[in-house]
Prior knowledge:
By secondary structure, this protein is mainly α. It is 81% helix and 0% strand. The protein has one domain (22-205).
Amino acid sequence: MQLSLWLALLAACLLISFTPGAGAINTMSNSLSSGFRRSLWGILGQQIALLIQIAIVAAGVGLLVSSSPIAFHVIRYAGAAYLVYLGIRKLLAKPADAAEEKDKASQESAFSMLRRGFWVNLLNPKAIVFFLAFVPQFIRPDQPLLPQYLVLAATVVLVDVVVMWLFFAAAARSLRRFTESQRGEKTLNRTFGGLFVGAGVLLAVV
């Protein structure tokens, strides 16, 4: 991949990653509940899903998904339902005191956060449709395809990890003070619960 083309890819990836979505909401929620460092596990789960979506597009399966209304809507509504479920669980979560909150944060396993991040990103067929339009802009068919796809996938993932962790997860750290009181924690639960539900509704209707 030529440097000029890669720089264009880098700029596009930055713009995409900085656009708030379900992944950003999940990252900030993890950072608040489990801490800045441990939120990385959820981010890694999201990246595994991204790699699968890119592989689906590269293999040509993405075209089948986007052209099949049944497959598209099944994945779409499953993703919407999962986001709404996460939101309702947040809305119904009971505030805990500071000591209990610290214990609770340490109780959620890395695998649990990784799994949630994976499903949040994977159950979004619009991402596959997006990659169908996005990927060909940076792939040259007259050049070896595998190295180009590897560079593209590595760039997408690395940029998203950096933005999710050093921007969204870091931004959530400024809200940590709200978790020190039951009232503040309840407000955060309602806020992020509402954001999850809103993201699910948007995925279903837009």
